[in-house]
UniProtKB/TrEMBL annotation:
Gene3D superfamilies: P-loop containing nucleotide triphosphate hydrolases. The keyword Transport applies. Keywords: ATP-binding, Nucleotide-binding, Transport. PROSITE patterns: ABC_TRANSPORTER_1, ABC_TRANSPORTER_2. InterPro entries: AAA+_ATPase (IPR003593), ABC_transporter-like_ATP-bd (IPR003439), ABC_transporter-like_CS (IPR017871), ABC_transporter_ATP-bind (IPR050166), P-loop_NTPase (IPR027417). This is NitT/TauT family transport system ATP-binding protein. GO terms for molecular function: ATP binding; ATP hydrolysis activity. PANTHER family: ALIPHATIC SULFONATES IMPORT ATP-BINDING PROTEIN SSUB, TAURINE IMPORT ATP-BINDING PROTEIN-RELATED. CDD domains: ABC_NrtD_SsuB_transporters. The keyword Protein transport does not apply. Residues 7-240 form the ABC transporter domain.
Amino acid sequence: MTATAALEVAGLAKTYTGHGAEVEAVRDLTFRLDKGELVCIVGPSGAGKTTLLRCVAGLLETTGGRIHLDGTPVTGPPAGMAVVFQEYGRSLFPWLTVRRNVELPLKQKGLSRADRAAKVDAALESVGLRDSADAHPWQLSGGMQQRVAIARAVAYEPSVLLMDEPFAAVDAQTRADLEDLVRRLWRRLGVTVLFVTHDIDEAVYLGERVLVLSNRPTVVLEDVRIDLPDDRDQLATRSAPRFAELRSHVYGLIQLAKQGHRPDAA
Ligand SMILES: Nc1ncnc2c1ncn2[C@@H]1O[C@H](COP(=O)(O)OP(=O)(O)OP(=O)(O)O)[C@@H](O)[C@H]1O
């Protein structure tokens, strides 16, 4: 008997209805994340990655299957989860300072003022934004704003952190820095991370596993173990022969997915 999964998704299905049309986005998704794992999800455009994440975050009603966070069924936004979205511009409150943005979920958690201040300071320090605590989000670059969103998630101390293409809107150099930041924070905090990206290189660089999704209606095409050394480095890791092999493998799977290939019996 294995320990309770941090996140368990079993037979998840989601069909959108409305305006007389039905879209079967997700047919049958089953996977689990053990405590402290960092797992990436890739799949063709429209495969249902965002749908999956929104169901897991309790933001979207499912039409079938079960989702458990630390053994508890997810029926609405769960207390132990934090989400970082691609659109940092819309997820931060422009009228609040960086410090207040990071603090907000801690207020909802009912922490004392002193506790909140300590956690906000530590989180801003961990993303290198201590000096920007009193700035407003619109005074910061896109990459800095996304670091605020990460600090807010980290300060909340979630058991599972969901990230939906969080770096898609920042430049390549900033993206590399943010990838390393996520790996560092993940290793230090031991948080379980589910990271959705359309970037194959990013998925292989970040993940301990990469779940490759089929095209719609979605199932898991393959669960790829990323057996790269734990210490990752933008130059050394990305130029390693094993990285190239894994990237080619995942790339090949995505091509198959686009052609409609599905695992047997799906
Ligand atoms: N509110 C909705 N109503 C109807 N269909 C929807 C809705 N939201 C998403 N869909 C459909 O569900 C499918 C999956 O969409 P989703 O956004 O989850 O895919 P994705 O893998 O995140 O795509 P991308 O990689 O392009 O961001 C698509 O066919 C999409 O058109």
